């Protein structure tokens, strides 16, 4: 048996980060990355549980591994899915949840699940392999217990890491490729450590790493502070993007969701943010078919979407999750939830299209990330507002900032030529 591993990752950027942590831990214990699944003796499936569909994707991957491989290789279930799955299939050698990755080498050696010994789920002492964007959690867990959401049950109580340990981890992990720091938390703007709040840690990172772009996800409307937008206006390295999940436009549903803001509170945040920074990009998450959602409630969601004109949105049909309170509310049929989702997507896509078309003729500052799949003279990148942009030109390099003049819109993607290298 070799000692090579392969990690398959599903879910949000927290799971992406965790996979980098797992990789670091295993590499430091003498394991090596496998070139492909067949070459690996250990397969780690880092799965998500936020919706049924997310679970199905990871389970689909596991099921696609041949019976023979399942016998020969160690198959480790990791991530939120490892904590949420009720019946772990017998061919899974161990299930390791997000706080237990430091125990993984022991688990692999002993071939069974040891009780969490070293792990507390704080990985700020481990350096990761940074790409152009360095994923940097500033907190873990979530205390909000939105009535539909499984995350607080899987990721535990919210805990913010100290500014000192965050800065140290960034210093250790950043390399010549790194151009952007993404500060992450389930509720990033409720950060609180030793009396320091989110805007303090933002200042610390911006001051310490003056040559980096800085972004953050995900902000909760109930913890919003206008100071964040003021900082964006003052510091060009702080990206002008706010991902602010609204979830619903109905106060009745927002209250049943335990979101702790009203639709008008949300409107006010957006009004203030755009007053200070008219060009800020505002994106959101929205759910349809939440239990108890009536046609009228859903129309209020359509209304707020039409009013606010989000630059982009992740839209989901409600999925009943274990542990959550919403399972005891009166359910909306899956067909109705799906039909509302379709109607919502149609409205939002039109808005997005209109917004993207308005970019034509403008110049955006774009960080190039990678060669586009289509052509060697096209690169994929993102602007300060987190908009995906295709950059065209000769000798484009990944990890560089370019001023890009948008002269074409392909579908919903702006395309442009380099006006200036920065
Ligand atoms: N912590 C972040 C992200 C949570 S998960 C936040 O609070 O914004 C990302 C999105 O998944 C949520 O914003 C929500 O829109 C969606 N989501 C969460 N639970 C869900 C469920 N049970 N069914 C459908 N969508 C869900
Ligand atoms: Fe889930 Fe709500 Fe926490 Fe987000 S804030 S992770 S939606 S409980
Ligand atoms: Fe992320 Fe999915 Fe867990 S969204 S926090 S990986 S349940």
Describe this structure in words.
The chain has 422 residues and is an alpha/beta fold. Among the domains are: 4-110, 3-Layer(aba) Sandwich (Rossmann fold); 122-239, 2-Layer Sandwich (Transcription Regulator spoIIAA), CATH 3.30.750.210; 363-421, Nucleic acid-binding proteins (OB fold (Dihydrolipoamide Acetyltransferase, E2P), Beta Barrel), CATH 2.40.50.140. The chain is built from 13 helices and 20 strands. It has helices spanning 13-28, 52-64, 67-72, 79-84, 104-110, 151-155, 163-173, 198-208, 226-234, 251-256, 263-276, 295-308, 334-357, and strands spanning 4-9, 32-33, 42-47, 74-78, 94-96, 133-137, 139-140, 159-160, 180-184, 192-193, 196-197, 213-217, 241-243, 281-288, 312-317, 363-371, 378-383, 388-392, 401-410, 413-421. The strands form six sheets. A five-stranded parallel β-sheet has the order 2-1-3-4-5, with helices on both faces. Helix 12 (295-308) links the parallel strand 14 (281-288) and strand 15 (312-317). Helix 9 (226-234) runs parallel beside helix 11 and helix 12 runs parallel beside helix 13. The N and C termini lie far apart (50 Å). Bound molecules: S-adenosyl-L-homocysteine, iron/sulfur cluster and FE3-S4 cluster.
